[in-house]
Amino acid sequence: MALVRCILEMGMGVDVHGKDYTSAAKRAVFDALHHSSLGFQKLIGKTADDMRVDVTIGVPSPQKVDKEAVLATLPHGTGYIKVVPGGLEIPSADGKDACVIANAAVIVSFDDGK
Asked: How many Cα atoms within 13 Å fall on the side-chain side of residue 46?
């Protein structure tokens, strides 16, 4: 199987209060996914469910992201995820809370049948 990268979309998600890294990551994926509407797969004899969807999330504390919850937001295809250091955590003025900003890169690939 040879995968052919067809789409790369980027997104950003924010959890303003509560330091919920998973929420920020899910919002980043939502943002990335809603920049595109894919229709070309029919041209290559595939369906949206044939997609391989590779998600990379960047947040300051990768271990705080529930990977399965983020993958569950994908509407089609088979998802794979990695979470890496990145994004931002901006503490509140009193230091008791923070705004978490996550970045997402979503890559859609198809098997070319070779």
From this structure: 20
Of 80, 86, 79, which is closest to residue 103 (Cα–Cα)? 86
Residue 37, Cβ density class (10 Å: 0-12 exposed, 13-18 middle, ≥19 buried): exposed
What's the pLDDT tens digit per position in 2-42?
888 889 999 999 999 999 999 999 999 999 998 877 778 88
CB of 56 closer than 8 Å to CB of 9: no
CATH of 3-111 given 3.30.420.40, 3.40.50.150, 3.40.50.20, 3.30.1330.20: 3.30.1330.20
Residue 104: name the closest of 25, 37, 36, 6 by CA: 25
| Dihedral sign from CA coordinates of 69, 70, 75, 76 | negative
pLDDT at 1: 66
Q: Where are the domains of the chain?
A: 3-111
At 50, give phi and psi (nearest 5°).
-85, -5
